[in-house]
Amino acid sequence: MRYSLLSLTALLLIVQAVFACSGSAEGGAPTGAKCGSDSELDYESFGKGFMARYCVQCHSSQLPSGARNGAPLDHDFDSLAGIRATPRAHLEEVAAAGPEAVNRQMPPPGYPEPTDRERKQLGEWLACGAP
Amino acid sequence: MAGVRGALRAATAAALAFCALESRCWAQTCHSGFTPAQAQGTRLDLGYTVGAFSTSRYVGNFESLWAGAEWRSGDWSARGRWGMQRVLFNGLQRVGVGDPMVSLRRALYRETGLQVGVAAALEAPVGDAQAELGMGHWMVSPMGWLELHDQRTFVAATVAYDYALGMNSLHAHGVHPLVAPMVAPALASEVMAGTRVLASLSATARAALQLPVGDAAHPGSPTIADGSVGVSWIDGSLGSGVELQLPLLGDPFTWRVNTRIGWGF
User: B31 vs A101, B162, B222, B227, CA distance in Å?
Assistant: First the structure.
């Protein structure tokens, strides 16, 4: 019995030691985007159009669950209220850009993709609180 | 008389083995669970799991077709399982291999009608976690187990400590909300009971519980409980079983059915 317990303990320790550092970060990174004092981006001038071009094909409150291509039911970007209801850090880390990172997890492959400049604008708009 | 008793015990033990369908399934991921005593030798299994889930964020269904093998000699046994998975959530379908699992088990005490032992299971992050086909991290589950049985009935229980390696203590899946209800580290326990209703047919019932512990036990971490009922049939070296699992607490699955067929030699 003593040897079996020791064997199992040793096995667990070895596994822990070998694989303790094998995890990988999921999703994107904080972009470091700032809200400039001269920022003119707001929902009407930027957010609405950006979402319409790149997001609402899947992230729309008008879509039934089977037509969302995997988009969560609580992530709807066809209104400013829906955008603001989504954690800003999540939006930033899947689609926005800034001085520290360019995140391209969204949109998924096969869908129109924003330019890096548009992603930077998204980061700035989110940093300003999505006005 | 002793021979008859031994044969009945062997039949019960074999039935137990096939009653033990996939255990401790949280969301679309099944961890190593209870594997009751059986005859010495090797067993090959094919299994199929299907279920449906509904949460505030996702609606869909899930299938898994897997193959497994178990080898037992004396007090030791080793087991492995791997399979293909299909998951459909909010209209998006993903198909691919899941996370393989291996486990090693040791009986520490064996008397007529009672066994106590320890085990350790390891799951590897082979399945694509971004596609909801795997957990995305290694997971180790040391556990203790106990089994009581007579010629007709049995009761078995396990207590495991599920620990995700290479992850934050909180099982922060982020973009993998289907398995988000699973937390690590967690204490996971299951209790299973069964009885032979015919010579080759057994009925079983099982309850499984997962409790977040340590850093994972913050407000909002889900406690998950499932209940199951099933039947198994065994004839000689062949056996099969089917089990219906229903969520009792915290599990996003609305139902799950496990089936399995095995051949021992």
Answer: 36, 9, 17, 16
What sign for the dihedral angle of Cα B94, B227, B182, A77? positive
B236 pLDDT more than 90? no
Residue B210: what pLDDT?
Answer: 85
Residues 41-70 of A with CB under 8 A from B: 65-70
Q: Is B168 helix (H, G, I), strand (E, B) or coil?
A: coil
Test A68 with B56 for CB contact under 8 angstroms: no
What pTM was computed for the model? 0.76
CA–CA distance, A94 with B80 (Å, rounded to integer): 36
CA angle A81, A82, A88 (to 5 degrees): 95
Query: Vertex B173, ends B248 and A90: CA angle to 5°?
Result: 120
Whether chain A has a CB inside 8 Å of the CB on B174: the answer is yes
Q: For residue B114, how many C-alpha atoms fall within 13 Å in the half-sphere facing its CB?
A: 2
d(CA B14, CA B151): 12
Q: Describe the crossing of helices A88-95 and A116-127 by its angle, rounded to 10 degrees.
A: 170
